[in-house]
Write a structure and sequence with these properties.
Elements (H helix, E strand, L loop, with lengths): L4 E6 L3 H12 L4 E7 L5 H8 L3 E5 L7 H11 L4 E6 L4 H9 L4 E4 L4 H12 L7 H10 L19 H11 L4 H8 L3 H15 L4 H11 L3
Parallel strand pairs: 1-2, 1-3, 3-4, 4-5
Helix pairs in contact: 7-9, 7-10, 8-9
GO biological process, one term: regulation of DNA-templated transcription
Organism: Hymenobacter elongatus
Protein name: Response regulator transcription factor
Length: about 220
Amino acid sequence: METPTRVLIYEDNSDLRASLSQLLAGTQGLELVGALGNCMQATTDIARLTPDVILMDIDMPGITGIEGLRRIKKVAPQVNVVMLTVFEDNDRVFEAICAGADGYLLKKTPPAKLLDAISEVRLGGAPMTPAIARQVLRLFPRSKPMVTVPDESPANLSAREQEILGLLVEGYSYKMIAADRGISIDTVRSHIKKIYEKLHVRSMTEAVSKALRQGLT
């Protein structure tokens, strides 16, 4: 039997926290390990509850969700953190991405889409609402492409790796890339592992950020 994905919620709005808890607790394949009103004890919470995925509100009392995100990534970089917020402004999006957010969704995201996002981030994707994804693309000005030999990018990516990196930049999940390119998810994972190695990054967010800054796609 497949091990359920352990999810932790940080949300200071009690009504929303209760509705999210009910949604997650009633979903097969997920295990709600906690629903907390602030992230002031984030590092202790992580050690105690060992979540796989965290849904993190940005605007909370005590310390912000972005500061909580930084603390979590420092002690448990393998934990996927998806920011849940009412904010769409560039500064918050940029700050969250730089702090290591694995996804960024609006609180008005429909329940089914939220559940899809949890699955996607566990597969290595970076779930974002379309409005947020467009802002992310605008945050990083594309540099002029360097002159390169055929089938190579400035980071020595193969033609296939460049294709896949381009799809990641557009917000595709592993499943979507596999379907679009007609390859298996394992093959996608293999390509992305090589992309990470060549770009000297450790996460989807870092890879997309570097691709946009250096004009690699």
